Fold:
Amino acid sequence: MIFQRLPLPPRRSTAIQIMADSIPPEATRVPTNLVSSGTTVLADQSWLRKTKGLLVRYAKATATTQAGLDDIRAKCAQAVKDLPLRQTITSFAGLRAHEPRHEFFIGQIAPGFVDCAAIESPGLSSAPAIGVMVADIVSGILDLQPNPDFNGTRKGILNPQELGIEEYNALIKENPAYGTVICRCETVTEGEIIDAIRRVPGAKSIDGVKRRTRAGMGRCQGGFCSPRVLEILSRELGVPMGEITKSGGNSRLIVGVNKDNV
Structure:
């Protein structure tokens, strides 16, 4: 990988010259209307970034760099001493849409169309409030009335690890599935996975189970438990294992048959 560090003078067209086969052509130019005076752009095979704001053209890049991870490590240390980053399982990078005029643009921009754009930091923390705000907007547009029968409290999936020894033993005696550990990394039992599948709305994919129970989020990243989760999904949903997906759509995990059917 070879990259160049180029100063970008104001009001002049400048191209970032990148020598990498994996970079798509659209990632090699930076529009100067987004560049401020004296900005330096560092380009490598996964991202383009300037020191103030965001300057990324290749939105599909999700790779991380050692320099970027070192920067995160140094900044985390300012807030939390001895953060155990060696326990990090995976790392990724992502982009979000940037609106230079304003952050958190939320509102009806066309009849019946509510836009939620430029959701920057702290977007994750503000997501519940954004949801309430959008619900209020939609309610006003459609003149919706409260449903007196709606129960907004969802009962969580039972976590056996929160039970005492006697309670846990009684649970296993009543339902042996809670005594079978499927995900060893996160100690997730078959009973929890079945609960996640049978509830409404229930999990229908490997990732659906993961988001509800943490099965597959551990050190092996599903290397050991995914086949068992696949079997349980197939059994509980009553569909062939070949139809089970990782995350919906066409993300099927089984693409052929083994020697047992040859």
